[in-house]
Amino acid sequence: MIRPAQPEDHPACAAVFLAAYRQAFPLHPPDYYVPERYFESITGEEQWVAVQAGQIIAVLSIYWPENFIHSLYVEPRLQNRGIGRRLLEAVVARAKGICELKCDKVNKRAVAFYEHLGWCEVGEGEAETGPWVRLRK
Ligand SMILES: CC(C)(COP(=O)(O)OP(=O)(O)OC[C@H]1O[C@@H](n2cnc3c(N)ncnc32)[C@H](O)[C@@H]1OP(=O)(O)O)[C@@H](O)C(=O)NCCC(=O)NCCS
């Protein structure tokens, strides 16, 4: 089931976020992977979740004023089963007009995932965390 996150979902969303974030970006010090990182990152955004057997298994956060998908994280043990695609496409279908997102270039797997789903590169830049690409659908 895909649905908007409720306030009581956020601890479970933070757990999914941290597990998938650690997998995608494993090189930070251990104390980097704290729930506060999730809570700070979602300010002003709306979260959508994928739920399976009552458990939150993926979370997406979107900033609606710009149709900007800020983050998409799937529980590591459940990746490559179509969950990321279903959550992403369910939210994009609700957007009016184009959607955009930024992805760190080092995260080659995620860039390939988005490109496979038809997202096109429209820009690039450099952040503290390294180079990123801007993708549009
Ligand atoms: C990237 C991520 C969101 C993808 O979600 P997922 O559930 O594993 O991906 P899906 O199973 O839904 O894949 C959907 C499609 O993309 C394709 N795909 C997935 N990874 C791919 C890759 N590296 N290269 C090419 N295609 C890929 C799949 O084959 C599938 O194709 P199909 O629908 O035509 O069969 C997930 O792996 C994840 O949470 N990664 C860690 C966190 C992260 O990097 N998030 C993105 C940065 S914000």
What features would you describe in this structure?
By secondary structure, this protein is an alpha+beta fold. The protein has two domains: 2-97, Aminopeptidase; 98-137, no CATH class. It has helices at 10-24, 35-41, 83-92, 108-116, and strands at 2-4, 46-52, 55-63, 68-74, 100-104, 120-127, 130-136. It has a seven-stranded mixed beta sheet with strand order 1-2-3-4-5-7-6. β3 and β4 (68-74) form a beta hairpin. α1 crosses α2. It is globular. Bound molecules: coenzyme A.
Task: Provide the CATH top-level class of the largest domain.
Answer: Alpha Beta
- How many whole angstroms does the radius of gyration measure? 14 Å
Q: How much of the residues is beta strand, in percent?
A: 25-35%
CATH topology of the largest domain: Aminopeptidase
Query: N-to-C SSE series?
Result: EHHEEEHEHEE
In CATH, the homologous superfamily of the largest domain goes by the name Gcn5-related N-acetyltransferase (GNAT)
Number of H- or I-type helical stretches: 4
**Count the strands?**
7
Major β-sheet, in short?
A: 7 strands, mixed
Bound molecules: coenzyme A
Main-sheet strand order equals: 1-2-3-4-5-7-6
Give the overall shape.
globular
CATH architecture of the largest domain: 3-Layer(aba) Sandwich
State the end-to-end CA separation: 23 Å
Low-pLDDT stretches:
none
Secondary-structure class:
alpha+beta
- Number of structural units classed as domains: 2
- Proportion of residues in helical segments: 25-40%
Q: Kindly report the average pLDDT value.
A: 96
